[in-house]
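Limitations

Structures in this collection are predictions, not experimental determinations, and the ligand pose is part of the prediction. Treat each record accordingly. The example that follows, with 2-oxoglutaric acid as the small molecule, is included so readers can see exactly what is and is not provided: the inputs are given verbatim, and the output is the predicted complex.
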Amino acid sequence: MESHIQRPAQGEVISVDANGALNVPNQPIIPFIEGDGIGVDVTPPMRKVLDAAIAKAYAGERQIHWMEIYCGEKSTQIYGADTWLPQETLDAVREYKVSIKGPLTTPVGGGIRSLNVALRQELDLYVCLRPVRYYAGTPSPLKQPELTDMVIFRENSEDIYAGVEWQAGTPEADKVINFLTKEMGATKIRFEDNCGIGIKPISKQGTERLVRAAIQYTIDNDRDSLTLVHKGNIMKFTEGAFKDFGYELAQNEFGAELLDGGPWCKFNNPNTGKEIIVKDVIADAFLQQILLRPAEYDVIATMNLNGDYISDALAAQVGGIGIAPGANIGDGVALFEATHGTAPKYAGLDKVNPGSLILSGEMMLRHMGWTEAADLIVQGMEGAIAAKTVTYDFDRLMDNATLLSCSQFGDAIIDHM
Ligand SMILES: NC(=O)C1=CN([C@@H]2O[C@H](COP(=O)(O)OP(=O)(O)OC[C@H]3O[C@@H](n4cnc5c(N)ncnc54)[C@H](OP(=O)(O)O)[C@@H]3O)[C@@H](O)[C@H]2O)C=CC1
Ligand SMILES: O=C(O)CCC(=O)C(=O)O
Ligand SMILES: [Mg+2]
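Predicted complex:
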């Protein structure tokens, strides 16, 4: 297939050393996917804000050389009608180590179920990292939104989300149902005819690498607790196993000891000596508790579908998905992305909040070790919100705010750096 990626004239490739540490040159090439729908609105201000923060923090010594790569609708325009995710896009994300993407529409029909899920699976980006914090002045339905300060580690490659399922009425679905009822003795499939079937894989290996990353984050960032969120009382061998694998890992690899006979356990942070609690909560109760007692939760580790629901629910507590950032991280490769989707009704209107993708860029800079530039973006975001210069999503919930367009909000962040 003909190549459509144009490598910038300048810039170097980020590499990873034998210990897995990033080696970031001063002039790295960073691939980006513009994204569908509001991707055209939020991606340009994201680049502009990052460039401005880097220029200010490093006085010209460091600079990102952006390289556009393609996925989604733009890819079909460039590569041909059926090419939603070109191989050279996957190769570039792998080779350049750190990339960022706008939201992607899940195509109706066609071979790929979700391009986002496909990217995560193909590149084995097994951690979906979504921090949730409050920016003072942001409109919120909570009385004390500042108590919500959590970091979600969502398993990104397994679960019912992996898409192992068969449509009702197909020979494949009937074959699986036949196997389950005739050979496995399953008696609880209520209606065997015209029944769709999905499979929920939850492995020890998949759980361990996610929980290991979450505990390491808890240690490195001096956080208080890690909570395993699951529905293991009902789905004992999948969600229940996730909880058990998680507790076992905390004990076997981090020396956690049972609290009052367990299952909760605790260990001391090897860096600070501070106690870290490892606990669990059942998912439905958790969704109540994050509203009523958010201060009791800190780092969260959960499975793919729970993590999807929880990240939008928690985002709503602190201003909505317009400012909810995220990252998909694997061993040595990371692809940063907003929590929200393509919001098609707003596409091209220069209206939506670019904050989610800009803060995903802020996470990317921190991941690269460019903390001074990342701090400037946080400062700019705090300043723009405190000045009540905001996009429509905040404006409609705030008194006496000044309504800005998507691009103007990006500029307001730069003005407050
Ligand atoms: N990672 C990804 O790329 C994701 C892709 N998707 C895909 O996106 C498409 C649309 O999904 P949909 O369910 O509508 O979810 P979206 O997240 O795209 O939009 C839902 C609503 O959230 C609000 N919203 C979203 N983004 C912003 C923003 N930047 N600023 C302010 N408000 C925002 C809007 O609310 P309001 O109407 O109240 O203004 C919008 O109508 C689907 O094809 C889906 O598969 C979905 C999620 C993630
Ligand atoms: O891929 C999609 O269409 C949806 C993904 C999603 O909602 C998410 O990852 O939060
Ligand atoms: Mg989602």
